[in-house]
Amino acid sequence: xxxxxxxxxxxxxxxxxxxxxxxxxxxxxxxxxxxxxxxxxxxxxxxxxxxxxxxxxxxxxxxxxxxxxxxxxxxxxxxxxxxxxxxxxxxxxxxxxxxxxxxxxxxxxxxxxxxxxxxxxxxxxxxxxxxxxxxxxxxxxxxxxxxxxxxxxxxxxxxxxxxxxxxxxxxxxxx
Length: 175
Description:
By secondary structure, the chain is mostly helical. It has eleven helices and no strands.
């Protein structure tokens, strides 16, 4: 399947192929199925609005499903291997981590572990345009939060990530 699609192509794909394309944007199966079933879309804006509306009507378990499909911030090796199927859409999302020195990556790894131990899921942040140092600062700022607040923070970031990936899927120049 092509990395980029037109909206007409997305609308006309068989359900299974449309699901594969959308899953590269967000791994919550309920979200994917809702968008497949909502086709055809008349504009990218309508698709983005529906994607957001569906997202905010999901349950915490669906959020966790989406979160689990992400590499850990700063884990450059997992970006290159485990998540190769989303590479075309996720490219440059953690560009700042690629350029970070080892001490920052080690601090991110330690912070990720503390975050995951506390909240039960990995740290989700829309990393596009952020340096590794900025991501580390955000992680450290969010560690004291409650579980409820962190689910909300991660879900908000996932919504941003999904919108960026949908734009990329449909050939937009959004990074």
